[in-house]
Design a protein that fits this description.
Length: 263
């Protein structure tokens, strides 16, 4: 691995080997998501507690202060919407010139294994890796499932993650599931956990994050379970305590309860 690639990855994965990415890219397929209507205002109090921001170029340019931000993972796939026929029908949306102009530390692209657009999404990933490796920019593959939530099991996600790594992704973002170690054990590159649907309780979030970290994940890429929480700063600080301080779910929940009244 060359110096530039190592340097960019070190901006994302911290010295303890863990990472906390904050995604606000949801609008690229579902429009003005609840609590993300004004993304610049949403992230302002949260940025001190994350390690990187996962964002589209449009929101980055229009809503993120370039002097007061964190390393950027740039969402570079899209072309489908939540009201369209198939969320899996994506293409690469952003040129390498734009990626460099925006000083991205990494880029992110979705793959849809098992969908009608499996081939297109996997060749999109391969093409992006081919381009970005020339400029030492790491690619994060996102193992998306579209609207088919029942696919989130260890066998399927292990397949997706391994294929993404085989095609050259430097990091893989996937969903937590039961037997999550089956996913991480079969993936030779770092795995970060997505949040998925909003959980019912804070403790439920802390429990799956802790379990995933114990079973080989290097970190998380959680959005809705943070900024849709009535106490987002307390939530992000409590999650950070699991990622970077090895706190238990119970300790994180106690921290959340002690912080939430301060917001």
């Amino acid at each position: 691995m060359n110096w530039g690639m190592k340097n960019r990855l070190s901006q994302l994965i911290q010295p303890d080997g863990h990472c906390f990415f904050l995604p606000i890219d949801h609008g690229y397929f579902q429009g003005p998501t609840t609590c993300l209507e004004r993304p610049g205002e949403t992230i302002k109090p949260l940025l001190p507690y994350c390690d990187a921001l996962f964002v589209t170029r449009g929101v980055l340019r229009s809503a993120v202060d370039p002097a007061k931000t964190k390393p950027v993972i740039l969402r570079v796939s899209g072309g489908a919407s939540v009201i369209g026929k198939d969320l899996a029908n994506e293409s690469i949306t952003t040129s390498i010139e734009e990626i460099i102009r925006l000083n991205a530390s990494a880029v992110g692209i979705s793959i849809f294994v098992g969908s009608d657009y499996e081939h297109e999404s996997l060749t999109n990933l391969s093409a992006l890796v081919n381009i970005c490796e020339d400029y030492s920019i790491p690619v994060m593959a996102v193992t998306a499932v579209g609207k088919e939530l029942e696919k989130r099991n260890a066998r399927y996600l292990a397949l997706c993650c391994r294929i993404a790594a085989e095609l050259g992704a430097r990091v893989v973002k996937t969903y937590w599931c039961e037997d999550f170690d089956r996913v991480t054990n079969g993936c030779p590159v770092p795995v970060v956990m997505a949040g998925g649907p909003k959980c019912e309780t804070e403790l439920e979030v802390f429990e799956f994050v802790y379990d995933g970290m114990q079973k080989g994940a290097v970190g998380i890429n959680l959005g809705r379970n943070i900024w849709q929480n009535p106490n987002p700063v307390a939530m992000i600080r409590s999650l950070r305590s699991i990622i970077h301080e090895n706190c238990t779910p119970e300790e994180a929940n106690d921290l959340f309860n002690s912080l939430k009244d301060d917001e």
